Amino acid sequence: MRLKPISEQVIVITGASSGNGLAAARKAAQRGAAVVLVARNREALRAIQDSIRTAGGRATFVTADVSSREEVEAIAAHAVEAFGGFDSWVNNAAAGVYGRLDQVPLEDHRRIFDVNYFGMLHGSLVAAKHLRERGGGAIVNVGSILGDRTIVEQGPYAATKHAVQALSDTLRMELEREGANISVTLVKPGGCGTPYPDHARNYMDVPPRIPQPLYHPDVIGEAIVFACGTPRRTLYIGSGGLGSSLIGQLAPRMTDLVMEAIGTRIQQRPQASDDAETRDNLYEPRADGNVCTDQDVAMRRHSLVLEAQKLPRLGLLGLGFGLAGAMLTGARALRRGKSRV
């Protein structure tokens, strides 16, 4: 399967007003792609569009809630009107909530699925229809390591990411069976320093955070843009998250015990205060426009696991070494956690 060079593409990116989506949009525009920015926050999208254009790039934006099929179809129509169509579609929009399953109201559980799963389903179906007519292209779905191994306090979010894994695999098989020239990639980051914990609805008694080690959103943005131009089944980002995922499959009971003991504590910031302007965008957009969280955290800017998967012929060998390193990293993390139990 051959995809267009990034410089010749039009790329639709949902959830482009912050975090990984914004990082990917900037990288794609810097490499010559035209980008269609999608989110709910019109003010933030307009500012991002203008900054890309000022830097010499091509960009337009659409305000949309991906949980609505009609609004997702309007995204595609806008891309056709602005640029004549699109070559890649990135399903990145997501919503989050912190809290135990019994703390989170049922309507919030459903809202998380409406955005994270049904939003991706809407985008995938609309994109596939357009790309069939166009002769091919790429669909890039942004999942999470939590689609492999869940964690306490993020049950609804992790459940959607498990569903995203199944959706991506099914979509890939169906498109391949019919002979469509459409690549489907699932990007699976570990912890990354996006504004996710700043935006999430929180039912814990203290503000949330993402457990370290964290990767800079630019690393995830690089993976997304790479997948738009190079077919890959899955792209893992971060040896720590991948190691935890693998250990979770190999030693699920031990992983459960560690998560039960430290899972809540490592996701909390007891001394921090909430920013009322950014907190809780589950149903309505809030202050936006930042790639990174405002939390004072260290972020890695390079992932050896990702780089290994980008290699053309040695990718599997490189990934094997990366997986071995990730398993060692995850095992060490679990031993440290177990010693605290």
In short:
The chain is an alpha/beta fold.
Topology:
Blueprint: E1 10-14, H1 19-30, E2 34-39, H2 42-54, E3 58-63, H3 69-83, E4 88-91, E5 97-98, H4 106-134, E6 137-142, H5 155-177, E7 182-189, H6 196-199, E8 201-202, E9 214-215, H7 217-229, E10 234-237, H8 239-250, H9 252-262, E11 299-300, H10 304-310, H11 315-340
Parallel strand pairs: 1-2, 1-4, 2-3, 4-6, 5-8, 6-7, 7-10, 9-11
Helix pairs in contact: 1-7, 3-4, 4-5, 8-9, 8-11, 9-11, 10-11
- What is the name of the CATH architecture? 3-Layer(aba) Sandwich
Amino- and carboxy-terminal Cα gap: 49 Å
According to DSSP, the number of beta strands is: 11
Ranges with pLDDT <50 over ≥5 residues?
none
**Could you name the CATH homologous superfamily?**
NAD(P)-binding Rossmann-like Domain
- Helix share of residues? 40-55%
Count of DSSP-assigned helices: 11
Tell me what the structure shows:
The protein has helices at 19-30, 42-54, 69-83, 106-134, 155-177, 196-199, 217-229, 239-250, 252-262, 304-310, 315-340; strands at residues 10-14, 34-39, 58-63, 88-91, 97-98, 137-142, 182-189, 201-202, 214-215, 234-237, 299-300. It starts with 9 loop residues before the first strand and ends with a helix. It has one domain (6-340): NAD(P)-binding Rossmann-like Domain (Rossmann fold, 3-Layer(aba) Sandwich). The chain is globular, with a radius of gyration of 19 Å. Strand 6 (137-142), helix 5 and strand 7 (182-189) form a beta-alpha-beta unit. The protein is 48% helix and 14% strand. The longest helix is centred in the middle third of the chain and has 29 residues, at 106-134. Strands 3-2-1-4-6-7-10 form a seven-stranded parallel β-sheet, with helices on both faces. Strands 5-8 form a two-stranded parallel ribbon. The protein has 341 residues and is α/β, with parallel strands linked by helices.
